[in-house]
Model the fold of this input.
Amino acid sequence: QVQLVESGGGLVQAGGSLRLSCAASGGSFNNYVMGWFRQAPGKEREFVTGMRRVSTSPLYADSVKGRFIISRDYLKNTVSLQMNSLKPEDTAVYYCAAGWRLGVDPGSYDYWGQGTQVTVSS
Done:
């Protein structure tokens, strides 16, 4: 059983940056696909980015490509999301997820964190 705990959310002005982190425990971190999703009020949970291993190319949603960067630290068992040039439409609860298959469907992931709020003011 994998436990995921996100941190780093908060309030930022448009154009600013935030870095989210997700600490994983209780499983074989090296073997999991790690992803980030987000959910805005009244909307479905949507894929942001995901990656298999450090040596592979991450997958990004078009809406964040060129602005967000996912990274993994195998020594610390963490996955991070660097968010730059933030826009008000990036406002959402951001979730870390772990699974066996890299996909954009939330059903591809088996384990989820509790989420962290990101609010971007205009």
